[in-house]
Amino acid sequence: MAISDVVRTRFAPSPTGFVHVGGLRTALYNYLFAKKNGGKFILRIEDTDQTRLVEGAAENIEKILEWAGLTPDESPLRGGDYGPYTQSQRLDIYKRYCEQLIAEKKAYYCFSTPEELEEVRKLQQKQGLQPKYNRKWLPESMGGSMPESKIKEALESGIPKVVRMKVPDGVAIKVHDAIRGVVEFDSAVVDDQVLLKADGFPTYHLAVVVDDHLMKITHVIRGEEWLSSTPKHVLLYEFFGWEMPVFAHVPLLLNPDRTKLSKRQGDVAVEDYVKKGFSREALLNFVALLGWNPGGGSDQEIFTLDELIERFSLEHVGKSGAIFNLDKLQWIEEQHIRRKSDAELAQAIRPILEEELKTRKTEMPIEKITSDDYLKAVAREMKERVRFVKEFVTFSSYFFFEPETYEEDAVKKRWKENTNALLLEFVARLETLSDFSASAIEAELRAFCEAKGIKTAEMVHPIRLAVSGASFGPSLFHILEIIGKEAVIRRVKRAVERLKAEPAAA
Q1: CA–CA gap between residue 129 and residue 127 (Å, rounded)
Q2: DSSP label at residue 399
Q3: Catalytic residue numbers?
Q4: Which CATH class for the 408-498 domain?
Q5: Tens digits of residue pLDDT in 77-125
Q6: CATH 1.10.10.350 spans which residues of the chain?
Q7: Nearest-angstrom CA–CA distance, 412 and 37
């Protein structure tokens, strides 16, 4: 039976908890390859290990893919022509194919107890052998030593059993990998894998092959950790007489010390990075570069999803482990912010601000600070200064909220004995200013300072503190223009009431 002429890739996670960033990369590579080739991207939930299931995890996987913009063409929630897309709903299918393998003497029943298997394993380890099943229950008709009568007797007695595949002896099993080339395995190191467990659920190895075939998957793009299992899958394809998909095993993700990426050294869940404020654009861009490069001598590092689709190819996925560098992720996030237009940033800022307004009061008109023009002005001033989109609201909250505190060290340094009087006098001049643009405010302040015979800094720093509560930020005059005359005057007068110079040392 031929595989579909349409490219079909799949992301097939287990619903055992959070979505690992390595899983996001696997999903992304499958999505990019499918879309680059005009194909379909499928989500399949592999829940055959019922002992590790986490409630709600399957729904969360689809939710994360939707957040990332990697919407599956077929999935448990969306449906499709080749479902169900959850393995626990396909048990009869796996049982049928298992029975076919038994009938064709390519698989056999095994009644060994867990205690027996553990005893054999320990003995083999003591002898310096690779632990493998000892084929105690391999039938005489398949080259083993177990009489058929004993097997029949065990079946009739209802003793718990599993089904194992019979790995051919003395053959070389070749895996053709799109990233690694031909990888060869000696069948002597391949165990008689359990295909169907005693609880009636298939193991990963049977289910993945049956499902990939029935769902017409053309390319299996998955992590390097599955490469050692692929000989078993190759054998199953051969046993069934099915055309094999193209295999591509992507490199491991590594910590900076080159150990396998794990939660012990930092966050590994996509959800953790979402909570920290990383955007989907930056996170996808970052994980795309963990093992892939655009090739052609290009040094481009910042990509949109559409650009990744256009440039992606398996030929430019490397074999070596990829270092998960958080500093690089942060840099990519900042570059994506810089690339966005002010209008795009305004749309991204608004929901964050609206959420903040649910718990914080503002003295500024809501319709003003949530307007496109106002948010675009804030974006224009702050886009080179923030690390995350949420910081347009949290890091520069003075654009939306009155300062509740004033930077203590700056007040001690900048607030002089005559500061309050100067500020009130300057505010009076601002109240008469008809043009409240940055340039007009700056000209007025410089003229004021010149008339008073003082340095501009003696006014700039206190005004910044009064208006923002901070000693740093973008151009003061642009801040004043954006928040407007009414808010500026109100904030300066309030600061005058609250702040005064430190008494001189005796």
Answers
A1: 5
A2: G
A3: 263
A4: mainly alpha
A5: 999 999 999 999 999 999 999 999 999 999 999 999 999 999 999 999 9
A6: 408-498
A7: 64
